[in-house]
Design a protein that fits this description.
Length: about 90
């Protein structure tokens, strides 16, 4: 089966974005441009929203069929929860 450019891009974008998030969340001096109020929930929401979208596109590209169903959404939600727990643990103990 030949992959389209979009499918190839989806397969490359997810690991690249995950690596970017890993570096950005664990490097101590990363500054977010602009003013962030006392709550950075909007930044986290956007970051994990992009991650969920890329995971969904990655799953679509690797399955070769129609868009993933509820099971894939559940996997994405589990991944977000695991990532959030790991982030909280590393912030507390790192």
């Amino acid at each position: 089966m030949t992959r389209t450019r979009w499918q190839y891009a989806a397969q490359v974008a997810l690991p690249a974005y995950w690596l970017l998030l890993l570096v950005a969340t664990h490097y101590p001096r990363v500054q977010i441009p602009g003013e962030v109020t006392h709550s950075d929930k909007l930044v986290h929401f956007a970051a994990f929203g992009v991650l969920a979208f890329l995971y969904w596109q990655f799953a679509r590209a690797t399955q070769g069929g129609p868009a993933p169903r509820v099971v894939e959404r559940g996997r994405a939600a589990r991944l977000r929860r695991v990532r959030a727990r790991a982030d909280a643990y590393l912030k507390q103990h790192g």
